[in-house]
Design brief:
By secondary structure, the protein is α/β, with parallel strands linked by helices. It is built from 16 helices and 20 strands. Helix 3 packs antiparallel against helix 5. The longest helix has 22 residues. The structure holds nicotinamide-adenine-dinucleotide. InterPro entries: Ald_DH/histidinol_DH (IPR016161), Ald_DH_C (IPR016163), Ald_DH_CS_CYS (IPR016160), Ald_DH_CS_GLU (IPR029510), Ald_DH_N (IPR016162), Aldehyde_DH_dom (IPR015590).
Length: about 500
């Protein structure tokens, strides 16, 4: 085993007594209570973070409010774009540092942290930077009767909503945090981020880089802590929009509270129990490497990744045999070792949750392959395929958010669609087939925000992303995010 060397800058950053990032600088915490950040591969404490009080959250929101009114909303769009691009440049310059911070706190393979998380963060920031100069309203011609020759014209203004609360999960904290930063800053909004209590460091570091990029103090603030800190943040009267990514129960609670808070705008990117449909004509040798990579990337802790494989009856045995053989080749190891193909789960509560599902599967003899936690140090579990006992089986219904996937046989297209849609979730799905005509007929029947053909889990800033049913509310990326971060003001003029 050979692990990458931890950079001195990373060691120094982890050794700091972190506070909150408010008004362009790190502010020491008001209270002494700390949260330990644990490396999930070694179970060692790598750093600690503070827990923001309501007072500290209010200071961060006030700073974002002042920056919105006195700096950012009035910054010319071109300059906003330049600064976001400069931030992307700095992320590129500090790529290894940010990748190591992510790996040390999430257990994400170092190559995934480098080539997906950090690389895509740069791509997304640059994409959003490009939008700054392209957000506009429209002109209209009203049909109001003219009695004395008067005329009318109308136009719409797109105005930034104001201070955004960005609440971020632990699986891709840097990238998801930057989806929110990019959307907010390009439209002229300012933001207070609340990263996950498990993976906070990369966004604290990013906030410092934003100051180096020339983004004014107060435009990006970061308060750290658990759910309570998130509640203080979303309940602040100066917050005009909540952008939340996380689990369905938290998302529903946030949505309900946002409506009570005088209809605070809210967008929710939540969980899934995503389906991959492997049709009768699929060539398994061709599709399996791509399908398994898309499924087990980051140990399955990806909201968009599949957790249910629907395999045509004629291919079921071949599929389970070949997928089992392929998964047995996954080399499990330290996420800091570039040769590892599979790392630990990101944190202990999540490990316990996934273990609970594996225990049920083992008790009920539902394991096709894998199914074990690894004894010893670290939150490692095997990549697992399961049989399910019908569509009411909890293993068919509940999101594990781990490397645990059901394999279910189907015979007809009708049965396939009925089973895929038998779920409260509707985030993503995929069809694996060379029969494009059949795929095109199935796509409209699938209840999901994204459907891929012969691919899964790939996100691109040009393509909208979001869930239907309990998987979410609103869309990110493309031009779809603009509605969520701006208010449309109608202006009508008589002349
Ligand atoms: P979570 O809901 O437990 O926490 C998400 C964030 O919300 C954290 O920062 C947490 O501290 C905060 N939080 C918790 N309770 C809160 C409350 N009452 N008020 C305000 N903030 C609160 O989710 P998680 O375990 O961090 O992430 C895993 C979940 O996220 C999975 O369900 C996964 O599918 C989902 N996810 C969805 C997407 C997407 O784009 N749809 C992306 C990544 C993850």
């Amino acid at each position: 085993m050979s692990e990458v060397q931890i950079l001195a800058s990373v060691q120094q950053f982890m050794a700091r007594q972190h506070g909150h990032f408010i008004d362009g600088q790190t502010i020491p915490a008001e209270t002494s209570e700390r949260i330990e950040l644990i490396n999930p591969a070694t179970e060692q404490v790598v750093s600690t973070i503070a827990i923001a009080t309501q007072n500290e959250v209010e200071k961060a929101v006030q700073s974002a409010y002042e920056a919105f009114h006195h700096a950012w909303a009035n910054t010319p769009p071109y300059e906003r774009g330049l600064k976001l691009n400069k931030l992307a440049d700095l992320v590129e310059q500090h790529a290894e540092e940010l990748a190591q911070l992510e790996t040390l706190t999430t257990g994400k393979l170092i190559n995934l942290a480098r080539h997906l998380e950090v690389a895509q963060t740069i791509v997304f920031l640059r994409y959003f930077a490009g939008w700054a100069t392209k957000i506009h309203g429209q002109t209209m011609q009203p049909s109001i009767p003219s009695m004395n020759g008067e005329k009318y014209t109308a136009y719409t203004l797109r105005q930034p909503v104001g201070v955004v609360a960005g609440i971020v999960p632990w699986n891709f904290s840097l990238m998801i945090g930057c989806w929110k930063i990019g959307s907010a800053l390009t439209t002229g909004c300012t933001i207070v981020l609340k990263p996950s209590e498990f993976t906070t460091l990369s966004l604290l570091r990013l906030a410092e880089l934003a100051i180096e990029a020339g983004i004014p103090a107060g435009v990006i603030n970061v308060v750290t802590g658990k759910g309570e800190t998130g509640q203080y943040l979303m309940n602040s009267p100066l917050v005009k929009k909540v952008s939340f990514t996380g689990s369905v129960p938290t998302g529903i609670a946030i949505g309900q509270q946002a409506m009570k808070n005088d209809l605070t705008r809210v967008s929710l990117e939540l969980g899934g129990k995503n389906a991959a449909a492997i049709l009768a004509d699929a060539n398994l040798d061709e599709i399996l490497p791509t399908l398994l990579q898309a499924t087990f990337v980051h140990q399955g802790q990806v909201c968009a990744a599949p957790e249910r494989f629907f395999v045509h009856q004629s291919k079921y045995d071949e599929f389970t045999q070949k997928a089992t053989a392929a998964l047995q080749q996954f080399t499990m190891g330290s996420p800091l070792d570039e040769a590892s193909m599979f790392g630990p789960l990101s944190n202990k509560p999540h490990f316990e949750k996934v273990k609970h599902y594996l225990d049920i599967a083992n008790q009920k003899d539902q394991v096709i392959c894998g199914g074990q936690t690894i004894q010893g140090t670290g939150y490692f579990v095997e990549p697992t395929l399961l049989k399910v006992q019908g569509t009411d089986d909890p293993l068919f219904i509940e999101e594990t958010f781990g490397p645990v996937v059901d394999v279910i046989a189907f015979e007809s297209d009708e049965e396939l669609i009925r089973m895929i849609n038998h779920s409260r979730f509707g985030l993503t799905a995929s069809i694996w087939s060379n029969d494009l005509a059949k795929a095109l007929r199935l796509i409209p029947q699938i209840e999901a925000g994204s459907v891929w053909v012969n691919m899964h889990t790939f996100l691109d800033p040009a393509v909208p992303f979001g869930g239907v049913k309990a998987s979410g509310l609103g869309r990110e990326f493309s031009d779809a995010f603009i509605d969520d971060y701006t208010e449309l003001k109608s202006v009508m003029i008589r002349y």
